[in-house]
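Re: that backbone. Tokens:
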């Protein structure tokens, strides 16, 4: 059970080191007055620190190295 989890953590950690975040567009209502609605697209971003990816990567390597080989 440790082995697949370790591999998953390594992949996630490497991805987090390569991509430090992402952006997405959300449509928000500005005015909602009965039948009249005005909305605008707002760009939001989600970022994480690079050391978080390193922690995932190191944790995955530790899990993978301590797993028993069958």
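Recovered sequence:
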């Amino acid at each position: 059970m440790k082995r697949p989890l370790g591999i998953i953590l390594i992949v996630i950690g490497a991805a987090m080191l390569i991509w430090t975040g992402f952006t997405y567009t959300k449509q928000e209502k500005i005015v909602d007055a009965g039948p009249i609605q005005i909305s605008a697209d707002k760009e939001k971003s989600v970022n994480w620190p690079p050391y978080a990816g390193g922690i995932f990567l190191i944790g995955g390597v530790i899990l993978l190295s301590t797993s028993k080989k069958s």
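The beta strands are 21-33, 36-47. The two ends are 11 Å apart (CA to CA).
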